[in-house]
Amino acid sequence: MTLGYLNLVLHAHLPYVRHPEREDRIEERWLFEALTETYIPLLQVFHGLLDDGVDFRVTMSLSPPLISMLADELLQTRYRRHMANLLALCESEQTRTADDPARRSLAKEYQRRFEQVVQFFEDYSGNILPAFAQLHQAGKLELITSAATHAFLPYLRTQAAIEAQIATAVDCFITHLGFRPKGIWLPECAYDARVEASLQRHGIRYFFTDTHGLTSATPAPVFGTFAPVVTPSGLAAFARDEESSRQVWSSTEGYPGDYDYREYYRDIGFDLPEQDLQPFAHKEGIRLNTGIKYYRITGQTGEKALYDFHLAREKAATHAGNFLFNRTQQVAYAKSRMGRLPVVTAPYDAELFGHWWYEGPIFLDMLFRKMHYDQTEIKSITPSEYLDMYGDFQLATLDFSTWGRGGYGDVWLQGDNDWIYPALHDCELQMTRLADAYVHPSSLVRRALNQAARELMLAESSDFAFIMDSKTTVDYAVERTKQHVNRFRHLCSMLDQRDIDVSYVSDAEALSPIFPNLDYRCFQSNPQHAADLPDRDVVRVLLLSWEFPPMTVGGLARHVYDLSRHLVEQGCEVHVVTTAVDGYPLDEIVEGVHVHRVRVAQPDGGEFIHFVLQLNLAMLARCRQMIEVEGYQFNVIHAHDWLVGEVACLLKQHYGIPLIATIHATEHGRNHGISTDVQRHIHHIEWRLTYEASEVIVCSTYMLHELMDVFALPGEKVHVIPNGVDRRLLESAKGHRTPDDVCEERPIILFIGRLVREKGVHVLLDAASDILQDVPDARVVILGQGPMQQALRDQSERLGLGHCVEFWGFVDDDTRNDLFHRARVAVFPSLYEPFGIVALEAMAAGVPVVVSDVGGLCDIVRHEHNGLKAYAGDAASLSCQIKRLLFDPNLSHSLSTVAEQELSRFDWRRIAEHTIQVYGCVVVKASTVEAPTA
Predict the structure, then answer these.
(1) Is residue 785 domain-shared with residue 757, that is, in the same domain?
(2) Which of 145, 167, 255, 842 would suit a FRET pair with 185, their CA atoms being 20 to 30 Å apart?
């Protein structure tokens, strides 16, 4: 029987310490140490629990500076170098301690652990943010945000500055993780009532306070800290439980002080002569932590015993059991007095686990395993899950509080750091003045305004005031504060004088590139009316496409489906108008996407042009109803291909809604020219659509050049945004089987696509004759339908291939996925291919690919790197490349492994983000009235 819940909260944050100007800044090692000792070890624990089927819940805040640094390619490169040097030091230590078996054994174990960290890092191509997101999507890790630069919010002067911190934080979170955070970690748990308006505006549901922040509320909470309260604004506040905190944090009572645990302050970086620390040592001889520590705490004296990994692990297991026992006693006591299940909120700095308390990740691993396997009376839970359990939380008003020294704000405002606030407050007022003055600035002015906002927000970081109080790296904190304030003032002066130095702006952007999406207008005095460009969470998109699942003719349906749902994940409101399908409602919501279907008689042969006309008329009527009767106000129209061109242009002209067109292919490209009246008609509609559109999107550089040549489009109007692939959609359904005649022993050569001439299936059939001479048991499986189907069957019979070439027609996703996983090679021999999304799907499924060296496939496949290429239309070349894969399993494995690793380029979250940026361009263009420019 469950008696209550544990709400474990980890706050992960580091100040923004990216220094491109120097490669040896000590501060960047703060990030590298945290990656090595905290973030990756925690992810290893959580993913291990997930893989083992252990049920657990953790809430973790990832601050925007930390998110930005984890995603930064420069810092990823420097971390690789840092770890290479550290592993070299481990090798050196094993040589140095060759005559000391105990220390040599410790050095070897450190090397093993560091190698596992590096492997995990590389498994995610250097960006571990998706590893966090996977745990969130699995329902085990609830990820939340913090303020943009971890500013001490109560000490900001203006509401606009608070709004900027929250708005930018939410934008950063959505950009990198793909969904909206439900909660926030207020920096330093610093609360005052002014923060609530911005939290509520950006969809935040809950936050955390220190114990006294709740117990001093009015009226006093009847359940103490064992349940959240709700503020008058409707936000839930969870408070820290003192007892669970004391057991972990306390320097006298806490677990980390146990004598069997690793001694943090005895590192070989300080113990050994400098010459023994190469190549890890700092160039200037500064002593630094290496993470290699040979001693355990032992006692209060200077004499230390050698560390024992196994003994420390056993102690962590003991402490996990003790922690679990104590929490169970707490909730049992609280439940008897509450009449509902209590929750113990236990928040900690994430860096405690692993960095300061080396055994912390092991402790958490043991804690959740004991909770799961021992079927204890306490379970872990996230704040969102607990809030969903009850609907009658107590209403209370909270006062100012923090979790700092004394419970209030003197850490961040005392004699050593009070000088920063007059400067920051003056900068706030200047930033709001500029934001209000420039409504429609030029591109250069906008860059200067955005960079001024970055500099101000970085100067507001609470870390610098904290460092000045703690007297650690004070010079660095003072230097950083002054640098950002001075840069802000210089940018402000240039803006006021209408004399902007482009090189200065560029240099400032390069030094502090955090928050590339930052919009200075979040500093305007009225944030509710701050920007002409709607915030990404309220952008309303009218998306027109004749295909949308289950109406699937080609790759367009999959593209629109994936794009639309990922736009929704990033806060857009998307309405897709498409063709009706029997058995499906005319209006429904599919994964957050509003789908509106219109009935049109299906085309038959030469009536296709007439069908398209009727489709456009039906779409126009439905869209007019949505706008004029149902009251929808759309910010942008997004039209996909010529079939919806007429309705898109009419809606743009009649309602003045900005239009974007995505061109997936052209009639000129499909037919290698224009020769018939029907082709001329389609070609004209395509030209008109690209002409009327404010911006045009294509999926490959090949298509960019084709549109520039065929329609004389200026290059700056065309944006290359690739198609994407969602690996989750390629997982085979459990228990599903393809038809009985599928035989896994015979090598399968797989083609998937429309059976039209430009897909080159006839070339594959010609190549099959040669392949079968060397691989007589091979099977060519062709999935898809189209007008060439009978001609291809006839060709197969003429070539005597009827026994090995199989036309399966249209198949469901489960069958397709199973074939992907069974195929030895996937072949896409296109003569014309704007992109080739099915090649991406094959790569995601782990199938090696052979493609024609044509069109957008060139953007996807690099020959002998992640696939093989054949000359377009050349059966001999195609046969040669297919046989290479059939005869060389090592080559197949190498190519498919690299292909899978590089699929992050085609991640739908990134694609949706880039698409939203294009939306922003057209909305701004539609309303631009230039302010005075420099």
Answers:
(1) yes
(2) 255
- Please count the structural domains in the chain: 4
| Torsion of Cα atoms, 31 then 33 then 39 then 44, to 10° | 150
**CB of 208 within 8 A of CB of 287?**
no
Q: For residues 117 and 114, what is the distance between their CA atoms, to the nearest angstrom?
A: 5
> Are 893 and 797 contained in the same domain?
yes
- Domain around 886: 730-906
Kindly report the CA angle at 811 between 810 and 816, in degrees rounded to 5? 125
Q: Is the pLDDT of residue 645 over 50?
A: yes
Q: Is residue 84 part of a domain?
A: no
Rounded alpha-carbon distances, angstroms, from residue 854 to 234, 805, 841, 866, 867: 57, 25, 18, 16, 14
Helix/strand/coil for 910: helix
Q: Is 529 helix (H, G, I), strand (E, B) or coil?
A: helix
Phi-psi map region of 75: left, alpha, beta (phi>0 left; psi -120 to 50 alpha): alpha
The pair phi, psi for residue 203, each rounded to 5°, is: 75, 15
Counting other chains too, the contacts that 441-447 makes at CB distance below 8 Å and 24 or more residues apart are: 441/930, 441/931, 441/933, 442/930, 442/931, 442/933, 442/934, 444/500, 444/502, 444/505, 444/933, 444/934, 445/495, 445/500, 445/931, 445/933, 445/934, 446/520, 447/505, 447/509
Tell me how far the alpha carbon of residue 600 is from its chain's centroid.
Answer: 39
Let me know: does 182 contact 141? Beta carbons within 8 Å.
Answer: no
Cα–Cα distance list, 178 to 126, 129, 336, 402, 796 (Å): 18, 10, 41, 30, 46
Token pair of 516, please?
A: 């590339």
Q: How, if at all, do strands 343-349 and 659-662 pair?
A: unpaired
Q: What is the dihedral of CA 73, 74, 80, 85, to 10 degrees?
A: 180
**Partners of 597 in the β-ladder:** 578
Quickly state the pLDDT bin for 735 (edges 50, 70, 90): very low
Domain assignment present for 269: no
466 and 341 both lie in a single domain: no
Model confidence over 591-642: pLDDT tens digits? 888 999 999 876 655 578 888 999 999 999 999 998 888 878 899 999 999 9
Average predicted confidence (pLDDT) for the chain: 89
Q: Read out DSSP for 212-232?
A: HHHHTSBSPPTTTTSS-EE-T
- pLDDT digit string, tens, across residues 385-410: 999 998 789 999 999 999 998 889 99
Which residues, 6+ apart, have CB-to-CB distance to 149 below 8 Å?
16, 64, 65, 165, 457, 458, 460, 461, 514
